[in-house]
Amino acid sequence: EIVLTQSPGTLSLSPGERATLSCRASQSVRSNNVAWYQQKPGQAPRLLIYGASTRATGIPDRFSGSGSGTDFTLTVSRLEPEDFAVFYCHQYSNSPHTFGRGTKLEIK
Amino acid sequence: EVQLVESGGGLVQPGGSLRLSCAASGFTFSAHAMSWVRQAPGKGLEWVSAISGSGRTTHYADSVKGRFTISRDNSKNTLYLQMDSLRAEDTAIYYCAKETVETYFDYWGQGTLLTVSS
């Protein structure tokens, strides 16, 4: 099973700042099959990024994904108030699917 | 518009059984694999089970193998999760999720809460 380690656990930033979230895999993720989801309290996860770097439909271009192999990054270029939430990375290259433990992005 | 609506959650005693349902609409249900993903209170996401579009192929997490059974009725556009021999650690919100061809999850339901407690 591929273990995904997300860091930091909590990130405190202000609106307008840049957020950089990391996801490291315990082994190489084939075809960069990594997705990122945003989850707000009381809501289901929402797909942001798939294939490590492709934005899902309707996702603002301030969200971007990058990386390959074992190291992946989600960047939010200029934080808006509605962006503060928990973010999860997900690998769908190997069975079983696995998720990271999440990074909580909170308002400073 | 894609919609996934879960139902069937509730309070069950340890060792008990429950069946969750997920009603799908807005897409060709039989053309897509579906998964159940759960989230324990205050915790992260855990994939539980997946089923192919035809229903012929199923996969389970080790934590539920032999206790949970995933199935689907393509004539009713509905996904199911039969859960037996329930344990306290199965307590979670259960989400159904639509898989893309590449198998990431592009749509999620709002979830249904299962609580296993005496």
Describe the structure.
- The complex is a heterodimer of chains A (108) and B (118).
- By secondary structure, chain A is mainly beta.
- Helix content of chain A is 0%, strand content 49%.
- Chain A has strands at residues 4-7, 10-13, 19-25, 34-39, 46-50, 54-55, 63-68, 71-76, 86-91, 98-99, 103-107.
- In chain A, a hairpin with a 3-residue loop joins strand 5 and strand 6.
- Chain A is globular and about 35 Å long.
- Chain B is globular.
- Chain B is mainly beta and 118 residues long.
- In chain B, strands 2, 4, 5, 6, 9, 10 and 11 form a 7-stranded mixed β-sheet that branches. A 4-stranded antiparallel β-sheet of chain B has the order 1-3-8-7, with no helix packed on it.
- Chains A and B meet through strand 5 and strand 10 of A and strand 5 and strand 10 of B.
Number of helices of chain A: 0
Low-confidence parts of chain A, pLDDT < 50 over ≥5 residues?
Answer: none
- Proportion of residues in extended strands of chain B: over 45%
E-strand count of chain B: 11
The number of helical segments of chain B is 0
Low-confidence stretches of chain B: none
Mean pLDDT across every amino acid position of chain B: 97
Element string of chain B (H = helix, E = strand)? EEEEEEEEEEE
Strand content of chain A: over 45%
Which of globular, elongated, flat, extended, rod-shaped describes the shape of chain B? globular
From the helix content, strand content and strand pairing of chain A, which structural class follows?
A: mainly beta
